[in-house]
Write a sequence for this structure.
C-alpha cells in the first residue's frame, strides 16, 4: 500500500519546471482563444473595433482604470469610482506599459492572469517531489469547466486572480512544511497579503486555511518550532491593518528570527573576528517563538477578523427571504437580493461535478486521487478549506465550485501519476500520461467550445449610452436595474442608484418601485431618491424620517396621490429602459411588491412573455398551457379563462416611430395582450403590469409630457428624462 501511494519522481530542474509552466500557460491561454474565434466577426459584439467584455462587474473595475488613466486619483462621493482598487490600478498600469488599446487589455487580462493558476499547481507538485502530478494538475485545472467560465477572455473581474492567489498561499505553506527552511518562509504570508488586498472577501478562506495549519501542527508537528514561525507570519498577514504595516511587521519578525538563528548556529563574532561558541541555554528562541505566536494569535482573535466567517455564512448559508433594515424609529423589511442571484443558488448534482472536474467519471476518479494524495502527503490537509468551499456550491451557489478545481486537478494528476509510475519505458510512461490527461481534458474542451456566452451589452445598446454621455452631466443620475449599473457608469460616465456592488433590498426597492409603479408614482419616487442620494441616503427609511413619516403605507399613499412635498431639484435623473429587461421583469417587480412591515409579498401581478407562439386560426398558442381565443377574446391559462380588456399591436414605421394600435374588447377586464410585432413577442399582462412605468414608456411609449421627456428612442433601448 505504501509503495502504491508513493510514486516518487523527484524534483525537476529549474529549466525543466520552467518549460512545464510555460507549456501549461500557453495551452491555457490558447484554449481561451476559442471564444474569440467564435465571435471575432460578430460586429454587434464590438465597440471601438474590439470585442466587449462579457461580465457586468468588469465595467466597475474598468471605470476605475479609465479614471486613473484620465488623472483621477480619488473619489469621495457615494457612487465612487474604484480608483483605489488593485484590479483598476493593475489595469491602468498595464495600459500605460503595453501598446494595446484599453478595450483589448480588459478583454484579454482575465485569460492571461487566470492562466497563472498553472504556476502554483506545478510548483506544489515540485514541492511534493511529484512534478508530473503538478504539470497534469496545471494543464487540467486551468481549463476545467467552472474555472474557465470565470477566467475566460472577456470575464474581466477579480475572479482572474481570486483562485490563483489562495492556491499560491497553499503552495507557500506546503513548501514551508516540506522544506523547513527559512528561504521559503515568506512565500505564504506575502501572497496572503496580496490576496486580501485583491479580494478582501477571501478573509474567511484565509482564516480557515491558517486554522487548518494550526490543527495540522497541533496533531502532527506539535514540537516543531518552524511551524510556529510560519503560523505567526500568517497571523500577522491576517490582521485587519494596512498592508504596508503587515509587511513591515512580517519582515521585521523574519529579520529578527533570521539574525538570532544565525548567531546561534555560527557563534558570536567578537571585535577580533574570532568565533566564540555561544551558550544556547543563554537564549531559548523556541520559548520566545511560542510567546510571540500566542500574543499575535490572541491579537488576531480579538481583532474582529473572525466575524468575516460568520457574516459570509449568514449571507450565503443561513439566508432568509427578506432582509431587515432598522433605523432609530423605523423597522422596514426588504426583499433580499441573494434570493435572486443565480450564483448563490443550489445547483443540480451533475452540474456540480461537471463544474469541478468536467465529467462525472473524472470527478469520481479525481475524488479517489484527492483521498489518496492527502493520505500520502498529509500537508495537503491544509487544502481542505478550499475543498470545503467548493463543495459549499452544491447547496449555496455555483460560484464557489472554482475553489475545489485546483485540489481536484491535483487529485487527478496524482491518480495518473500512480497509474504510469511502473512503466519502465520512459516514452511509454509519458505517452500514457498524455493519453490519460487528454481524456480528462476532452469534456472540458467540449464545454469551452460550446460555451458561447454573449457580451454584456451589444453595440446598439452601447451606442445609446455613449449618446447619453454627451447630454448628461457626470453628477446626473440614471435609474436602471442594478444589472446594468456598472456598464451605464462606464459608458455614460454618470451616477446610478444601484449596481453590482450596491444592490441590497433597500436600494433595489425604490428602483423597482420606479420601474413597476405608475409613471406619476415613479417620477415622485425618483425625485425623492435623487435628492436623498445627494445627501448620502440610499434607502427610503431616512427619507421617510426626514419628511416626518412613521408609517410606510402612509408615505407610499402620499406618493401615489401626488400629495407629498418633493424636494427642490438639484440633479437631473434619466431612465434607461432596455428591451432586455423584459427577460427579468418579474424579478425586478419582486423588490417593490413586498409589504414593508411584514416582509411578505403583497402584490402578485401577472406577466407572461412568449417568443415562440403559434397562430392556428381560432387561437394563438403561447406555450406553457397558455393560449388566446381570438373569437371570444379570452386568455386561457390552463383551465382558467379570463377576458381581456385590450389587444395592443406595436410596430415601428419606416421613420423609426412607434405606432400603437389598440383593439379594445371588454372594458374593465384585468388582462391585456401586447403583440410587439418587430420583436416577434407577445406579452400577457394584468392591469398592474400594463400601467407600470416600464411597459408604458418602453413598450407603448405612453407618457405624460409633464412627467417625462424622451431623449433617446431606439428599438433596443430608450432613455427618458424626468421633468419633475
Amino acid at each position: 500500500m505504501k509503495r502504491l501511494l508513493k510514486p516518487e519522481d523527484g524534483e525537476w530542474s529549474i529549466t525543466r519546471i520552467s518549460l512545464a509552466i510555460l507549456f501549461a500557460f500557453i495551452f491555457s491561454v490558447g484554449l481561451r482563444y476559442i471564444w474569440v474565434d467564435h465571435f471575432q466577426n460578430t460586429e454587434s459584439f464590438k465597440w471601438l473595433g474590439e470585442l466587449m467584455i462579457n461580465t457586468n462587474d468588469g465595467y466597475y473595475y474598468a471605470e476605475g482604470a479609465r479614471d486613473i488613466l484620465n488623472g483621477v486619483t480619488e473619489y469621495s462621493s457615494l457612487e465612487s469610482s474604484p480608483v483605489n482598487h488593485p484590479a483598476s490600478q493593475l489595469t491602468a498600469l498595464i495600459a500605460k506599459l503595453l501598446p494595446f488599446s484599453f478595450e483589448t487589455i480588459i478583454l484579454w487580462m482575465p485569460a492571461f492572469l487566470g492562466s497563472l493558476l498553472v504556476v502554483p499547481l506545478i510548483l506544489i507538485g515540485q514541492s511534493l517531489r511529484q512534478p508530473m502530478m503538478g504539470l497534469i494538475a496545471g494543464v487540467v485545472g486551468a481549463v476545467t469547466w467552472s474555472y474557465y467560465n470565470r477566467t475566460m477572455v472577456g470575464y474581466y473581474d477579480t475572479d482572474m486572480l481570486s483562485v490563483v492567489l489562495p492556491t499560491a498561499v497553499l503552495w507557500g505553506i506546503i513548501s514551508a512544511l516540506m522544506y523547513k527552511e527559512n528561504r521559503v518562509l515568506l512565500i505564504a504570508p506575502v501572497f496572503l497579503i496580496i490576496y486580501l488586498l485583491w479580494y478582501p472577501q477571501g478573509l474567511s478562506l484565509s482564516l480557515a486555511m491558517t486554522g487548518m495549519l494550526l490543527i495540522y501542527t497541533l496533531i502532527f508537528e506539535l514540537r516543531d518550532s518552524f511551524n510556529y514561525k510560519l503560523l505567526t507570519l500568517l497571523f500577522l498577514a491576517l490582521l485587519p491593518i494596512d498592508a504596508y504595516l503587515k509587511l513591515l511587521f512580517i519582515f521585521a519578525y523574519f529579520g529578527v528570527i533570521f539574525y538570532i538563528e544565525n548567531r546561534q548556529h555560527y557563534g558570536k563574532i567578537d571585535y577580533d573576528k574570532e568565533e566564540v561558541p555561544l551558550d544556547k541555554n543563554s537564549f531559548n528562541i523556541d520559548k520566545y517563538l511560542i510567546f510571540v505566536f500566542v500574543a499575535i494569535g490572541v491579537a488576531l482573535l480579538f481583532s474582529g477578523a473572525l466575524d468575516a466567517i460568520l457574516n459570509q455564512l449568514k449571507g450565503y448559508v443561513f439566508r432568509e427571504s427578506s432582509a431587515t433594515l432598522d433605523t432609530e424609529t423605523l423597522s422596514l423589511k426588504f426583499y433580499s437580493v441573494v434570493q435572486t442571484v443565480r450564483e448563490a443558488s443550489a445547483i443540480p448534482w451533475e452540474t456540480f461535478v461537471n463544474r469541478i472536474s468536467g465529467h462525472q467519471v473524472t470527478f469520481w476518479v479525481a475524488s479517489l486521487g484527492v483521498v489518496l494524495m492527502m493520505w500520502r502527503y498529509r500537508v495537503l490537509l491544509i487544502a481542505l478549506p478550499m475543498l470545503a468551499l467548493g463543495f459549499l456550491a452544491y447547496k449555496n451557489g455555483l460560484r464557489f465550485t472554482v475553489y475545489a478545481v485546483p485540489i481536484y486537478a491535483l487529485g487527478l494528476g496524482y491518480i495518473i501519476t500512480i497509474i504510469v509510475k511502473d512503466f519502465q519505458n520512459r516514452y511509454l510512461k509519458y505517452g500514457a500520461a498524455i493519453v490519460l490527461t487528454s481524456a480528462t481534458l476532452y469534456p472540458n474542451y467540449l464545454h469551452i467550445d460550446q460555451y458561447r456566452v454573449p457580451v454584456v451589452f451589444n453595440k446598439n445598446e452601447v451606442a445609446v449610452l455613449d449618446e447619453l454621455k454627451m447630454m448628461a452631466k457626470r453628477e446626473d443620475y440614471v435609474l436602471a436595474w442594478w444589472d446594468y449599473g456598472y456598464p451605464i457608469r462606464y459608458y455614460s460616465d454618470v451616477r446610478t442608484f444601484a449596481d453590482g456592488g450596491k444592490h441590497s433590498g433597500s436600494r433595489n426597492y425604490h428602483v423597482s418601485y420606479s420601474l413597476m409603479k405608475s409613471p406619476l408614482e415613479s417620477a415622485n419616487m425618483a425625485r425623492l431618491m435623487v435628492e436623498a442620494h445627494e445627501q448620502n441616503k440610499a434607502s427610503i427609511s431616512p427619507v421617510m424620517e426626514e419628511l416626518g413619516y412613521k408609517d410606510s403605507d402612509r408615505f407610499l399613499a402620499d406618493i401615489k396621490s401626488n400629495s407629498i412635498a418633493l424636494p427642490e431639484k438639484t440633479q437631473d435623473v434619466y431612465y434607461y429602459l432596455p428591451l432586455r429587461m423584459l427577460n427579468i421583469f418579474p424579478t425586478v417587480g419582486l423588490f417593490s411588491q413586498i409589504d414593508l412591515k411584514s416582509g411578505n409579498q403583497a402584490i402578485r401581478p401577472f406577466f407572461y412573455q412568449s417568443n415562440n407562439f403559434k397562430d392556428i386560426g381560432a387561437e394563438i398558442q403561447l406555450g406553457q398551457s397558455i393560449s388566446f381565443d381570438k373569437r371570444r377574446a379570452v386568455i386561457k391559462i390552463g383551465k382558467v379563462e379570463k377576458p381581456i380588456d385590450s389587444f395592443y399591436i406595436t410596430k415601428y414605421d419606416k421613420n423609426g416611430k412607434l405606432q400603437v394600435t389598440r383593439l379594445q374588447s371588454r372594458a374593465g377586464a384585468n388582462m391585456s395582450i401586447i403583440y410587439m410585432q418587430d420583436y416577434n413577442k407577445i406579452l400577457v399582462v394584468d392591469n398592474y403590469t400594463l400601467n407600470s412605468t416600464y411597459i408604458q414608456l418602453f413598450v407603448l411609449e405612453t407618457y405624460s409630457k409633464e412627467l417625462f421627456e424622451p431623449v433617446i428612442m431606439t428599438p433596443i433601448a430608450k432613455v427618458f428624462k424626468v421633468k419633475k
In short: Confidence is low (pLDDT under 50) at residues 267-283. The two ends are 79 Å apart (CA to CA). Residues 14-450 form one domain. The CA atoms of residues 362 and 439 lie 9 Å apart.
